[in-house]
Amino acid sequence: MGTVGIFFGTDSGNTRRVAKDIATILGPSVAAKPVNIRNATVTDLLAYDVLILGIPTYGDGQVPGLSTGNATESWEEFLPTLIGEDFTGKIIAIYGLGNQKGYPDEFIDAVYYLHDQFDSCGATLIGAWPTEGYNFKKSKAVEGDHFLGLALDQENQKDLTPSRVSAWVASIASAWAA
Ligand SMILES: Cc1cc2nc3c(=O)[nH]c(=O)nc-3n(C[C@H](O)[C@H](O)[C@H](O)COP(=O)(O)O)c2cc1C
Q1: Quick check: CB of 108 below 6 Å from ligand 1?
Q2: pLDDT of 96-141, one tens digit each?
């Protein structure tokens, strides 16, 4: 039973595949089996002291869910259940899937909304990632020269995903061990 919880939303499977890769990198003694957020409750998340959360962006820079045309419920339906919950002492790292060429003004915007919500609940957010090497115009998920979490683009930079994921996992693992 792992001590790090991994929860993701997905419509076409990219964010789930990355969740599985992260779990493989960390190994079963560290990472719990990834769970789709549509099957999870706030209590399930609070069972872990460290959480890795994956979110794709849909619509025009929106959190995914039924209103953005996803086939199932996702983060959109989960987020309201967080209101008033206390994540003080919880460490959270977010990764986001997006398409910087197709949506250059809203690249991985959903990462911002997830980050903001867990920040409001008192969580400690880690896992910022440099914006260097991406080509987009605007993103709500940028602060200075970093994204608020790991940015991945399977449409345009698929080849870079494995090395980005392994470098990011190594960096967040050393941050939560500190
Ligand atoms: C209808 C639609 C809208 C999208 N909107 C955005 C967007 O606003 N910003 C962005 O960065 N990516 C956007 N994307 C790209 C997806 O986030 C990307 O394809 C992602 O890998 C999908 O993840 P999933 O396979 O886990 O569902 C959109 C994709 C689709 C199909």
Answers
A1: yes
A2: 999 999 999 999 999 999 999 999 999 999 999 999 999 999 999 9
